[in-house]
């Protein structure tokens, strides 16, 4: 293996990159840019790099001043790009080709000032919106033929009810969940920033502990139930179903495999 730096945070229009998502062909990588504060240097909230350019050819895609975009999702079949606006609480679709060609679609629970992360299921039939500072996950049906969303429905956890409870759907409790990912079987893996764990949610909504020990931050490798994390931020699933974890406060990338 080999690790190399492609683009630095201080390069070009970058201010605060927060999320990555490939297009269906895997030749373009989109990057959300959470720009805010008095020292804003750019109004781009979505940038992109290409495989052809060695993933170093940073270009602006969407301009939305002070959008505070934390979540970004690309439809796995159509390639449509969706993003969030923290201050207003809306989910948007970027239509292009101009920088400001985007449209507001819906809010989650009619709320603003929410921390959102997003991902489509592998089939592209639903967008899952993780609302970290409200401790829950919403499911939003999507019709790729008509390019329309249904009504957002609470899928797991309870709005503004933090805690740690395993169980079915809305009976489960989370503490600041972050960027999730799906495996090939449709299971969702959710890093739990507030409890230092990785949770697993089946397609039917059953929530269980996958790795880590609730409420115990640390750094320990080993069996999943003995491993320790420190504020995990995001996960991704490789083709062999191994899970890669951005372990934020340990400043590490971890790999979890379950036989």
From TrEMBL:
<protein>
    <submittedName>
        <fullName>Phospholipase</fullName>
    </submittedName>
</protein>
<dbReference type="InterPro" id="IPR011042">
    <property type="entry name" value="6-blade_b-propeller_TolB-like"/>
</dbReference>
């Amino acid at each position: 293996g080999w690790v190399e730096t492609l683009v630095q945070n201080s390069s070009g229009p970058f201010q605060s990159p927060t999320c990555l998502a490939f297009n269906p062909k895997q030749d373009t990588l989109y990057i959300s840019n959470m720009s805010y504060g008095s020292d804003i240097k750019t109004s781009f909230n979505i940038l992109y790099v290409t495989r052809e350019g060695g993933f170093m050819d940073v270009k602006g895609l969407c301009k939305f001043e002070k959008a505070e975009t934390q979540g970004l999702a690309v439809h796995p079949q159509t390639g449509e790009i969706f993003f969030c606006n923290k201050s207003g609480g809306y989910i948007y679709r970027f239509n292009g080709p101009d920088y400001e060609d985007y449209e507001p679609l819906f809010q989650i629970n009619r709320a603003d000032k929410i921390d959102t992360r997003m991902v489509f299921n592998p089939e592209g039939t639903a967008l899952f919106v993780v609302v970290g500072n409200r401790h829950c996950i919403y499911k939003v049906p999507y019709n790729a033929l008509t390019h329309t969303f249904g009504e957002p429905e609470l899928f797991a956890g309870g709005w503004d009810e933090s805690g740690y409870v395993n169980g079915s759907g809305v009976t489960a409790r989370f503490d600041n969940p972050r960027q999730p990912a799906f495996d090939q079987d449709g299971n969702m893996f959710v890093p739990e920033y507030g409890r230092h764990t990785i949770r697993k949610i089946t397609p039917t909504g059953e929530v269980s502990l996958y790795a880590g020990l609730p409420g115990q931050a640390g750094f320990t490798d080993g069996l999943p139930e003995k491993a320790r994390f420190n504020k995990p931020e995001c996960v991704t699933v490789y083709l062999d179903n191994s899970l890669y974890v951005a372990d934020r406060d340990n400043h590490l990338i971890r790999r979890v495999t379950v036989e």
